[in-house]
C-alpha cells in the first residue's frame, strides 16, 4: 500500500469505528501539514489546516519539547523519542483525540466525536 492508500484506509476506519464520529485527519509532524481529512460536515480547508498545525504544536511546540528534554535529563535518557504520545481534549460538546502514530511517531492521527463518546470505547477498536 502506498501512503495515500494508508491515509484513506485509516480515515475510513475512523469513520466506521468511532461512535458519534464527526471528523478525522492525519497530520505530518515534520511540517504540521494536514495530509488528509474526512468530516461529516463541510469545513473550509483553511480551518482544517490551522487545526492541523495547532495539533502538531501540542506535541512538539517549544514548551512541550522543553518538558520532554527536562524529563530526558532527569532520567538520564539519551534517545530522542517523543515523550507524549496522546492528547485527549474535551471541548464544550466534543471529544478530540490526537495520537502520535507509526514507529517514528512522525504522524498524528486525530478524530473528533460527540461528547458522549469516550476514548475508552473508541481507541482500542481502532488500533486492533
Structure write-up:
With 128 residues, this protein is an alpha+beta fold. The protein has one domain (3-127): 2-Layer Sandwich (Beta-Lactamase). 42% of the residues lie in helices and 28% in strands. The chain is built from four helices and five strands, in the order H-E-E-H-H-E-E-E-H. A hairpin with a 3-residue loop joins strand 3 and strand 4 (94-101). Helix 2 runs parallel beside helix 3 (62-75). The radius of gyration is 15 Å and the shape is globular. 20% of the residues are buried. The model has no long low-confidence stretch (mean pLDDT 82).
The CATH topology name reads Beta-Lactamase
The strand count comes to 5
Based on secondary structure, the structural category is alpha+beta
Architecture, according to CATH? 2-Layer Sandwich
Give the strand content. Answer: 25-35%
CATH superfamily: Dynein light chain 2a, cytoplasmic
Poorly predicted regions are: none
Question: Helical stretch count?
Answer: 4
Q: Could you say which overall geometry the principal axes of the C-alpha atoms support?
A: globular
Instruction: Characterize the biggest β-sheet.
Output: 5 strands, antiparallel
What integer value in Å does the Rg equal? 15 Å
State the helical fraction: 40-55%
End-to-end CA span: 18 Å
Q: Spell out the helices and strands N to C.
A: HEEHHEEEH
Taking all residues together, what is the mean pLDDT? 82
Look at the structure and give the CATH class: Alpha Beta
Tally of distinct domains = 1
Q: How are the strands ordered across the major sheet?
A: 2-1-5-4-3
